[in-house]
Amino acid sequence: MLGFAAQSLGIQCMFLDPSQDPPAAVAGPVISEAFDSLDALAKLARDCDVITYEFENVPVASVMAVEADCRISPPPAALEYAQDRLAEKQLFESLQIPVPGFRVVDSTADLRQAAEALGVPLVVKTRRFGYDGKGQAILRDTADADAVVSELGGSGLIAEQFVRFDREVSAIGVRAVSGQIVTYPLSQNQHREGILRVSRAPAEDGRIGAAANDYLYRLLTKLNYVGVLALELFVCGDSLFANEFAPRVHNSGHWTIEGANVSQFENHIRAVTGMPVVEPSLYGFPGMINIIGTMPFDKELFHKSAAVLHDYGKSPRPGRKLGHATVIGNSISDRDARLTGLQMALDES
User: Fold this and answer.
1) CATH number, domain 2-82
2) Domain boundaries, the chain
3) Which of 15, 118, 166, 321 has the fewest CB atoms found within 10 Å of its own CB?
4) Mind giving me the DSSP string for 262-321?
């Protein structure tokens, strides 16, 4: 999707992807090497004017290895913070962005102390390499502390207060090289089994939207950021608590391709290549459903639901995001009815 957005702006992309059948091959040449291959990184730096990434588990060392030879956006520091949940939480606190209570956990004793200080249930996570619900467990009873710590590797963990939130939203913004910042309307997100299933926009009232954008501005400015950044937030009454941020284009903003005058992908390419970014505005009321695990055989169901399908060309696998479909409603109720109808059709296929 970044490659297609670049093409629309007359920009050519080259990709580095270790997978055998990379989806990006439809949008440009692919170097099929590991993310830490020095030869592959050197080729990228030699042949490209700017390097960006769309996956936060790319090794920071790989990005820094080519930083002297090619402009890197977003900055490696953002990647470093996002790869360590403790560093991320400490960054939020330094910027006075509210977070649930948390404690470092490197042993069963640490987890029991965290439970005593914060109460149960607790969400226990690996500090690194967790996404889509992976690398985390819920501690509901201190008697299970040893089992939870063992399940997650024994150390290098963080325990967070379990937040009984009203809804989860994501704030997506983009910062240009010039320092210009624009933001998208908040997306309201629905997860199941730790995986994003549905996003709806807009999902804000003035109070929540203003606070979320303020937090975005603080992050983008502190990191001297260039590109798209997504901040995931829990809404609890009139309060917001930061969950995590992603230094990249984000799944909860995929609806922007059809649902806005400028997609997050185009604005990211604009930012990292030094172009001005464009202020987003919505087309109606967008909604998005992720296609998880298997792709429906009958693609006509998307046409019948007036939905636009994006098939990523990935092989089926339980829990894997294979594509997404976007609907645009004339009203909130119309959008939600379209999403419900599409989900029912997907469930029956």
Assistant:
1) 3.40.50.20
2) 2-82, 101-161, 167-348
3) 166
4) S-HHHHHHHHHTTPPP----BSSEEEEEEEESS--S-THHHHHTT-EEEE--PPP-TT-E
Output the pLDDT for position 194: 84
- In terms of phi and psi (left: phi > 0; alpha: psi -120 to 50; beta: otherwise), the region of 56 is alpha
H/E stretch holding 340: helix 332-348
Rg (CA), the chain: 20
Integer Cα distance of 202 and 43 in angstroms: 41
Which residue in the block uniquely carries the two structure tokens 């560093």? 87
Q: Do residues 82 and 56 touch, judged by C-beta distance below 8 A?
A: yes
Whole-number Å distance between alpha carbons of 45 and 41: 6
- What pLDDT shows up at residue 298? 87
The class level of CATH for 167-348 reads: alpha beta
How much is the pTM? 0.94
Task: Output the six-digit token pair for 248.
Answer: 């990249």
Q: For the chain, which ranges sit under pLDDT 50? A: none
Confirm if 120 and 101 have CB atoms less than 8 A apart: no
Q: DSSP state, 260?
A: B
- Which run of H or of E encompasses 175? strand 167-175
Per-residue pLDDT tens for 36-95? 998 999 999 999 999 999 988 888 988 888 888 999 999 999 999 999 999 999 999 999
- Reading the block at residue 144, the tokens are 């299970």
- Does the domain spanning 101-161 belong to CATH 3.30.450.20? no
pLDDT confidence of residue 239:
93
Distance CA 191, CA 175 (A): 28
Region for residue 10 given its phi and psi (left: phi exceeds 0; alpha: psi -120 to 50; beta: otherwise)? left
The predicted structure's pLDDT at residue 133: 61
What pLDDT is stored for residue 163 in this prediction? Answer: 92
